Amino acid sequence: METARSETAPTAAGPTAPESTGRADGPAHADPTSRRARKAKAREGRSPLFLWLKEVATVVVVAIVLSFLIKTFLFRAFYIPSESMVNTLDVNDRIFVNLLVPEPMALQRGDVVVFRDSQGWLAPAAPKAKGPFTWVQDGLTFVGLLPDNSEQHLVKRVIGLPGDHVVCCDAGGQLTVNGAPLDEKYINSAEIPQVRDFDVVVPAGKVWVMGDNRNHSADSRAHMDTNGGFVNESDIEGKAAVIAWPLNRMSALDNYPDVFRSVPAPSGK
Fold first, then answer.
1. What structural domains does the chain harbor?
2. Higher pLDDT among residues 37 and 254, named by residue
3. Fewest CB within a 10 Å sphere: which of 93, 102, 103, 106?
């Protein structure tokens, strides 16, 4: 049995049609080189101002997108309006907050945190004055290029974690956590803290917070009639990591691990 083969059918005698060479003999065979030349010529015809504006617009768009992504997933800027954290934070400081705390990174005693005022610790914010550029400020704040000036956030230092027994004060006038006295190096040394007695055990899902400027901080001690003075972990925006402005105060914020090193685990753990 023979195998069937596919062969080219013979053509009629006569001159053979020339093969396509790929040259620009018509619109179907446009030369790529000429296309590039036309594009280059078009670019040359644009003014330097147009090209500069295009580059600036590209940089601005990229910066806004990156800022929004960083603000949404990594860091967010906040403005400090009060003296409750002096000397750690001064009035008008701008800080960057690490949004990865408390999740997926765990909170630690000594962390400075920013949290939403879901318990009504602050008076209702006055309506913002509307100006011709208010929408610009709101937009820049939204994408993270300006700090959040909202007065419905607070900043304090975490003293007690869930399960901790926090007491003020022992015979030496020191705060204790799970029976261990704290040498609180972060407290404003310009004033002797006034003693406010309390004895609390921090419930699950909450923290006990206090300001470093103890005599000028309406913190957990001042709000024990609301939610026991505790802050919900779910209200915490993140951990304050860096003072970004003014430049002469630019620095990383410390959570003073040595202060809490001797604190034992809660008795229930």
1. 65-121+134-260 (2.10.109.10)
2. 254
3. 106
pLDDT of residue 174: 94
Of 39, 41, 47, 84, which is the active-site residue?
A: 84
Fill in the amino acid letter for 166: V
Residue 52, amino acid: W
Q: Averaged over 118-122, what is the pLDDT?
A: 92
Torsion sign (Cα): 107, 110, 116, 121: positive
Q: Helix 48-73 crosses helix 134-143 at what angle (to 10 degrees)?
A: 60
Q: How many CB atoms lie within 10 A of CB 174?
A: 14
Q: Which of 156, 206, 220, 239 is catalytic?
A: 156
H/E stretch holding 96 reads strand 94-98
Name the amino acid, one letter, at 236.
I
* pTM of the model as a whole: 0.69
SS3 content of the chain, % helix, strand, coil (to 5): 25, 20, 50
Computed on alpha carbons and rounded to an integer, the radius of gyration of the chain in Å comes to 33
Q: What is the b/e burial string over 221-238, where b = at least 16 CB atoms within 10 angstroms of the residue's CB?
A: bebeeebebbbebebbbb
Can 189 be counted among the known catalytic residues?
Answer: no
pLDDT at 127: 62
Whole-angstrom CA distances from 6 to 3, 9, 145, 208 are: 10, 9, 70, 87
For residue 56, the surrounding DSSP H or E stretch is: helix 48-73
Which amino acid does the sequence have at 22? G
Q: Select from 157, 180, 82, 64 the least CA-distant residue to 122.
A: 82
The reply to whether 156 belongs to the active site is yes
